Amino acid sequence: MPDWKSQSEIILDNEVFVKLMHVLLGVYVWEFFVSISFDWDFVSGRKKFRWPMIFYFCNRYLLLFALVGIAIALNITQEVNCQALYTFNQLAGNAAVGLASINLSLRTIAVYAQSKILIVALIVVILGHWSLILQGVLVKAEWIPETETCVITSANNTVLAATFIYSMVFDFVILMLNTYKLVGRRGPSGGSQLTRMLFSDGLVYFIIAFLSNLIATVFMCLNLNAIMSVIFNVPAAIGSTIVACRAVRRLNKFYHRGAEVYASGSGSNSNDAPPRFRTMNQVAVGGRTVRGTSAIRAPPSDLTSGVHVQMETFTRTDNFNHGSISPTHVTFEDESTGKRGSVTVDDLEFGDSESKHEEL
After folding, report:
1. What digits encode the pLDDT tens for the residues 34-82?
2. Which DSSP letter does residue 289 get?
3. Computed from CA positions of residues 36, 42, 47, 52, in that sequence, does the dihedral angle turn out positive or negative?
4. Running DSSP on this structure, what letter comes out for residue 173?
5. Cα(107)–Cα(113) distance, integer angstroms
6. Which of 43, 160, 263, 277 is the most exposed place for a label (fewest CB within 10 A)?
7. CB proximity list for 109: less than 8 A, separation 6 or greater
8. Per-residue b/e over 97-112, b at no fewer than 16 CB within 10 Å?
């Protein structure tokens, strides 16, 4: 059994730490660049930027900056302010863990149709999480002239362990909330493609994030030495960030890929809001492909269950400089009453919108 507190062991552990960080930096840079086209779609305006994407971008880029800072700290050959450098790395890395949980929380809020009670509860939990993340300087580092490197000399394991335990519990709560809501929607046919994707992504996220945080917490509680206490913090942050950001990208691409007809609300209450259908169409205009969206709300009636939807899309091309029209003809039928209706919607991203409804 090695003497984990000895100077020779700390130097050896530091060498292992350096090699591990370089491997993790390579993994994350690879993940970053294979998905950079998604980020560029928002920068170039091809996709509309919405406020929840703030957490996605902060999550990705804060962790990237933290890894770059760690690489600088591990490879610098001239004396620098090691404490300031590691303070930034610690705050940015812990913030990435918190932002990863926020990204999945936003999906949970969407699954629950923006329930105000759930929003308030999650905000309270998130604030508690960030109160631990922003506790202050939890890692001490200094320049070692003999090795000409920055070395971690001490770490506040109590607060660090509490932060990662909180993250595990938070992730578990999010998984249970998603499971409770989505399993009920799956039904005998296995649910919609969107439901299956949300469920599987949430499960994968929890397993990876939970195991990553668990390993980091175990080593912090063992408190072998200053380096071994934090050696698995970076893998935990990278694992959580990668799976959380992938979940955001998959959900975003799902909505842009094709039509998913989804009816919200159920039951026979006449006061319930009529079901809403959202379709995505791609049409050819002047040799170019244009994406159009149609948001259709069924007429106020008792069409709240057993609705069959048929959609026919056809294209009429006008002068491209003045926009084009891509009508979508939707026919729906209530299985229980046999009542039918139809809606025709014209809506393109760069054009005007008009719709008409008729009973069949």
Report:
1. 999 999 999 999 998 988 899 999 999 999 999 999 999 888 888 888 8
2. E
3. positive
4. H
5. 10
6. 43
7. 115, 118, 119, 122
8. bbbbbbbbbbbbbebb
pLDDT digits (tens, 9 = 90+) for 94-109: 899 999 989 988 878 8
Per-residue pLDDT, 299: 47
Residues 6+ apart with CB under 8 A from 135: 156, 159, 163
Spatial contact of 194 and 203, defined as CB atoms under 8 Å apart: no
Phi-psi region of 29 (alpha: psi -120 to 50; beta: other; left: phi over 0): alpha
What is the average per-residue pLDDT within 150-179?
A: 84
Residue 302 half-sphere exposure, CB side, CA atoms within 13 Å? 7
Please name each of the domains of the chain with its CATH number.
7-257 (1.20.1070), 276-359 (no CATH)
pLDDT band at 300 (very low <50, low <70, confident <90, very high): very low
Which strand ranges, in their side-by-side order, compose the sheet holding 340-347? 307-313, 327-334, 340-347, 353-359
| Distance from chain centroid for Cα 9 | 39
Instruction: Give residue 216's pLDDT band: very low, low, confident or very high (50, 70, 90).
Output: confident
Other Cβ atoms within 10 Å of 292 Cβ, number: 25
User: Distance between CA atoms of 20 and 17, rounded to whole angstroms?
Assistant: 5
